[in-house]
Amino acid sequence: MKTKDRILDTALTLFNQQGTAAVSTNHIADAAGISPGNLYYHYKNKEEIIGALFERLFAAWAVGFDLPTDQMPTLADVERLVRENFRIVHQYAFIHRELVALLRSDSALHDRFIAVRARGLDGFREIVGALEMSGVLKPLAAPDEVAQLANLCWLISEFWVSSLEVSGQTVDDDGMQRGVDLMLYALKPYLNG
Amino acid sequence: MKTKDRILDTALTLFNQQGTAAVSTNHIADAAGISPGNLYYHYKNKEEIIGALFERLFAAWAVGFDLPTDQMPTLADVERLVRENFRIVHQYAFIHRELVALLRSDSALHDRFIAVRARGLDGFREIVGALEMSGVLKPLAAPDEVAQLANLCWLISEFWVSSLEVSGQTVDDDGMQRGVDLMLYALKPYLNG
DNA sequence: GTCTATATCGCGATAGAC
DNA sequence: GTCTATCGCGATATAGAC
């Protein structure tokens, strides 16, 4: 399983640099130092390569998103979570740059993505709920306030990197920190103490 | 200038349906009921067509974003603004679906977009500032609070439609209303009265 | 598993008649 | 302004040898 993985590594680099449209299977094979035929031995087509990279992304999310279950989450945990997400999103930059378009052209992938995303958003809601329970957040009046607050944080965590790119800013530690700051600002009115 | 515009109308429809990668100049010409050669008489290439559609988007923004200058803006104005933006973003859906990728492959367009976007964000900051002045919002402690609050609203207004699409929800009045609600929720802690 | 060779296709773009 | 015809290219994908 060496070549198969190297194809993915190479494809990820090229996709991130030039976008999926500009990168052909020939380019990938060439950059990976193998023949076009060999690439097609390992993957049916470009779509399957993209799908495999999505699976890598999902795996990275699964690793990055597990919180200690034996203790209540803190605000620092949320911060770490969002920062980690920015890092992953940036690592698979091409996916988020072309996300809506990619999902529209592969409905099976779209279904899979929706499921993974829903789990992530659920997790976020649980964390916000736990923060309220543990007193980090003030008691929220309406029950759907938890959901709204989670939605807000989620939107930032999902699109902040895109926002940086669209506005011509570099996606570095500093830019990511501003995203974290914005999320903390959104939470501030609800913080205790 | 009849054909030239019909090419744009057709291209917009096809791009929104299938994405820029899947739509060739031949497809556009065919759907517009003209020959490929004729299309190239009016536009140098596909990139120029995409650029022209961006200009249409900018024009729509310019029209949709002017507020009455003779009186202070109200919260309802902001609501209207965001809702109008959702409508425009959805009308030029393909642009926001592929935004980062499109801008990366055309640096002149990127510069232009950044300038237009910066003006829009500035306008948003002014409105938030005016809301504070007129007492709709409570006095904000730090001077950069205005900017943070504007950033937050801007992020929602820019990416809410994408968020709907990514999560598999339809982009209809109801979905857009939930985006407006989220923005109002973000503003709520700072509202007077 | 990996290569070379090749078939097929359609895209982008231009030339030249009308 | 609009058409038809066409060239050149590169992309996807497969066949078959090693």
Question: In summary, what is this structure?
Answer:
By secondary structure, chain A is an all-alpha fold. Helices cover 75% and strands 0% of the residues of chain A.
How would you describe this structure in keywords?
homodimer, 193 residues, mainly alpha, Tetracycline Repressor, domain 2, 10 helices, DNA-binding
Your description of this structure?
The structure is a homodimer of 193-residue chains. By secondary structure, the first copy, chain A, is mostly helical. Chain A folds into 2 domains: 1-43, Homeodomain-like (Arc Repressor Mutant, subunit A); 46-190, Tetracycline Repressor, domain 2 (Orthogonal Bundle), CATH 1.10.357. Helix content of chain A is 75%, strand content 0%. The longest helix of chain A is centred in the middle third of the chain and has 27 residues, at 107-133. Chain A binds chain B through residues 19-22, 94, 96-101, 103-105, 110-111, 113-114, 117-118, 145, 148-149, 151-152, 155-156, 158-160, 162-163, 165-168, 181-182, 185-186, 189-190, and chain B through 19-22, 94, 96-101, 103-105, 110-111, 113-114, 117-118, 145, 148-149, 151-152, 155-156, 158-160, 162-163, 165-168, 181-182, 185-186, 189-190. Chain A binds a DNA duplex (18 and 18 nucleotides) through residues 3, 24-26, 34-38, 40-42, 44-46.
